[in-house]
Amino acid sequence: MSSVKVVVAQIVDETPNIRSLRLVRDGGGALGPYQAGAHIDVTGPTGVLRQYSLCGPPAEPDSLLIAVKRELESRGGSEALHRIREGDVIEISEPRNILGVAPNADAHVLIAAGIGVTPLLSMAYQLHHSSSDFQLHYFSHSREHTAFLELLEDRAEFRDSVHLHIGLSRTQQKAVLDGLAGSVSASSAVYTCGPEGFMETVVSIFTPTVGPNNVHIEHFVASDIDTSGDTGFTVEMDTGESFEIPADRSILSVLEENGIEVFKSCEEGICG
Question: How far apart are CA 134 and CA 161, in angstroms?
Answer without folding.
Answer: 7
